[in-house]
Amino acid sequence: MQSVFCGSIIPRCAATIAAFRSWRDQGQTLARVIPWKGGKRNVREYEVTIIINPNLDDAARNQLIERVEGWLSSGENGENKPAIHHWGQRSLAYPIKNQSEAYYVFYETQLDPQQMNNVERQILFVEDILRHLVVRKES
Protein backbone atom coordinates (compact mmCIF):
# COMPACT_ATOMS: atom_id res chain seq x y z
CA MET A 1 0.00 0.00 0.00
CA GLN A 2 1.48 3.32 -1.08
CA SER A 3 1.21 6.32 1.20
CA VAL A 4 -0.51 9.46 -0.12
CA PHE A 5 2.13 11.58 1.63
CA CYS A 6 4.98 9.70 0.02
CA GLY A 7 3.59 9.77 -3.52
CA SER A 8 2.39 13.36 -3.63
CA ILE A 9 4.95 15.42 -1.71
CA ILE A 10 8.22 13.61 -2.35
CA PRO A 11 8.30 12.14 -5.87
CA ARG A 12 11.63 10.37 -5.25
CA CYS A 13 10.03 8.35 -2.47
CA ALA A 14 7.58 6.78 -4.94
CA ALA A 15 10.49 5.86 -7.21
CA THR A 16 12.32 4.33 -4.25
CA ILE A 17 9.28 2.27 -3.31
CA ALA A 18 8.90 1.09 -6.90
CA ALA A 19 12.59 0.14 -7.07
CA PHE A 20 12.31 -1.76 -3.80
CA ARG A 21 9.23 -3.64 -5.00
CA SER A 22 10.93 -4.66 -8.26
CA TRP A 23 14.01 -5.74 -6.30
CA ARG A 24 11.82 -7.71 -3.87
CA ASP A 25 9.90 -9.35 -6.75
CA GLN A 26 13.17 -10.73 -8.14
CA GLY A 27 13.40 -12.93 -5.06
CA GLN A 28 16.29 -11.19 -3.32
CA THR A 29 16.32 -10.91 0.43
CA LEU A 30 17.92 -8.35 2.71
CA ALA A 31 20.32 -10.99 4.03
CA ARG A 32 21.94 -11.26 0.59
CA VAL A 33 22.66 -7.55 0.33
CA ILE A 34 23.24 -6.17 3.83
CA PRO A 35 26.59 -7.36 5.31
CA TRP A 36 25.48 -7.27 8.94
CA LYS A 37 22.60 -9.60 8.02
CA GLY A 38 25.05 -12.24 6.78
CA GLY A 39 25.10 -11.24 3.12
CA LYS A 40 27.77 -10.31 0.60
CA ARG A 41 30.26 -7.65 1.44
CA ASN A 42 31.04 -4.79 -0.87
CA VAL A 43 34.59 -5.93 -1.68
CA ARG A 44 36.75 -3.72 -3.87
CA GLU A 45 40.25 -4.06 -5.25
CA TYR A 46 42.88 -1.63 -4.00
CA GLU A 47 46.52 -0.82 -4.69
CA VAL A 48 48.44 0.47 -1.68
CA THR A 49 51.93 1.94 -1.88
CA ILE A 50 53.90 2.80 1.24
CA ILE A 51 57.22 4.60 1.53
CA ILE A 52 59.24 3.42 4.53
CA ASN A 53 62.03 5.20 6.38
CA PRO A 54 65.39 3.93 4.96
CA ASN A 55 67.12 4.05 8.36
CA LEU A 56 65.26 0.97 9.60
CA ASP A 57 67.24 -2.25 9.75
CA ASP A 58 66.02 -5.26 7.75
CA ALA A 59 64.31 -6.98 10.68
CA ALA A 60 62.32 -3.89 11.67
CA ARG A 61 61.42 -3.17 8.03
CA ASN A 62 60.20 -6.75 7.45
CA GLN A 63 58.19 -6.59 10.68
CA LEU A 64 56.54 -3.36 9.51
CA ILE A 65 55.79 -4.85 6.08
CA GLU A 66 54.20 -7.92 7.72
CA ARG A 67 52.17 -5.70 10.05
CA VAL A 68 50.74 -3.76 7.09
CA GLU A 69 50.11 -7.08 5.32
CA GLY A 70 48.08 -8.20 8.34
CA TRP A 71 45.98 -5.05 8.16
CA LEU A 72 45.36 -5.60 4.44
CA SER A 73 44.41 -9.27 4.82
CA SER A 74 40.71 -10.03 4.57
CA GLY A 75 38.63 -12.99 5.62
CA GLU A 76 38.07 -14.63 8.98
CA ASN A 77 41.70 -15.54 9.70
CA GLY A 78 43.42 -13.46 7.03
CA GLU A 79 42.74 -15.98 4.26
CA ASN A 80 43.01 -13.44 1.42
CA LYS A 81 46.52 -12.10 1.76
CA PRO A 82 47.61 -9.20 -0.43
CA ALA A 83 50.17 -9.54 -3.19
CA ILE A 84 53.36 -7.78 -2.10
CA HIS A 85 55.88 -6.23 -4.50
CA HIS A 86 59.12 -4.90 -3.01
CA TRP A 87 60.35 -2.02 -5.14
CA GLY A 88 63.39 -1.55 -2.95
CA GLN A 89 65.28 1.56 -1.93
CA ARG A 90 64.94 4.49 -4.32
CA SER A 91 65.82 8.13 -4.25
CA LEU A 92 63.01 10.59 -3.60
CA ALA A 93 62.17 13.50 -5.90
CA TYR A 94 62.25 15.83 -2.88
CA PRO A 95 63.25 15.30 0.76
CA ILE A 96 60.58 13.94 3.11
CA LYS A 97 61.35 14.31 6.83
CA ASN A 98 65.00 15.04 5.95
CA GLN A 99 65.31 11.77 3.97
CA SER A 100 66.50 11.74 0.36
CA GLU A 101 65.94 7.98 -0.11
CA ALA A 102 63.19 5.59 0.98
CA TYR A 103 62.12 1.95 0.70
CA TYR A 104 59.00 1.37 -1.43
CA VAL A 105 56.49 -1.47 -0.98
CA PHE A 106 53.46 -2.03 -3.22
CA TYR A 107 50.42 -4.12 -2.16
CA GLU A 108 47.45 -5.39 -4.19
CA THR A 109 44.47 -6.40 -2.08
CA GLN A 110 40.69 -6.82 -1.90
CA LEU A 111 38.87 -5.22 1.03
CA ASP A 112 35.55 -3.64 1.82
CA PRO A 113 35.66 0.19 2.03
CA GLN A 114 35.11 0.37 5.80
CA GLN A 115 38.07 -1.90 6.42
CA MET A 116 40.23 0.19 4.06
CA ASN A 117 39.36 3.33 6.04
CA ASN A 118 40.60 1.59 9.18
CA VAL A 119 43.82 0.55 7.42
CA GLU A 120 44.50 4.12 6.29
CA ARG A 121 43.94 5.38 9.82
CA GLN A 122 46.39 2.80 11.19
CA ILE A 123 49.00 3.69 8.56
CA LEU A 124 48.85 7.34 9.60
CA PHE A 125 49.88 6.43 13.17
CA VAL A 126 53.11 4.64 12.11
CA GLU A 127 55.98 7.11 12.16
CA ASP A 128 58.30 4.94 10.03
CA ILE A 129 55.92 5.18 7.06
CA LEU A 130 56.86 8.45 5.40
CA ARG A 131 54.03 8.50 2.83
CA HIS A 132 51.28 6.20 1.58
CA LEU A 133 48.96 6.09 -1.39
CA VAL A 134 45.71 4.11 -1.72
CA VAL A 135 44.14 3.72 -5.17
CA ARG A 136 40.93 1.87 -5.89
CA LYS A 137 41.20 -0.25 -9.02
CA GLU A 138 38.41 -0.02 -11.55
CA SER A 139 36.66 -3.31 -12.07
Describe, in short, the structure shown:
The protein is of the alpha+beta class and 139 residues long. Helix content is 37%, strand content 32%. The chain has helices at 4-9, 11-25, 30-33, 58-72, 113-124; strands spanning 44-52, 83-96, 99-111, 129-136.
Describe the model.
With 139 residues, this protein is of the alpha+beta class. The protein has two domains: 34 residues; 93 residues, Ribosomal protein S6/Translation elongation factor EF1B (Alpha-Beta Plaits, 2-Layer Sandwich). The chain is built from five helices and four strands; from the N terminus they run αααβαββαβ. Strands 2-3-1-4 form a four-stranded antiparallel sheet. β2 and β3 form a beta hairpin.
Number of domains: 2
Mind describing the biggest β-sheet?
4 strands, antiparallel
In terms of structural class, how would the helical and strand content be classed? alpha+beta
Helical residues, percent: 25-40%
For the residues shown, what is the average pLDDT?
A: 80
Oligomeric form of this entry? Answer: single chain
In the CATH classification, which architecture of the largest domain applies?
A: 2-Layer Sandwich
Order of helices and strands, N to C? HHHEHEEHE
Question: Strands of the largest sheet, in order across it?
Answer: 2-3-1-4
CATH superfamily of the largest domain: Ribosomal protein S6/Translation elongation factor EF1B
Beta-strand percent range:
25-35%
CATH topology of the largest domain: Alpha-Beta Plaits
Distance between the termini: 39 Å
Q: What's the tally of helices?
A: 5
Under CATH at level 1, the class of the largest domain stands as: Alpha Beta
Low-confidence stretches: 1-10
Shape: elongated
Radius of gyration: 22 Å
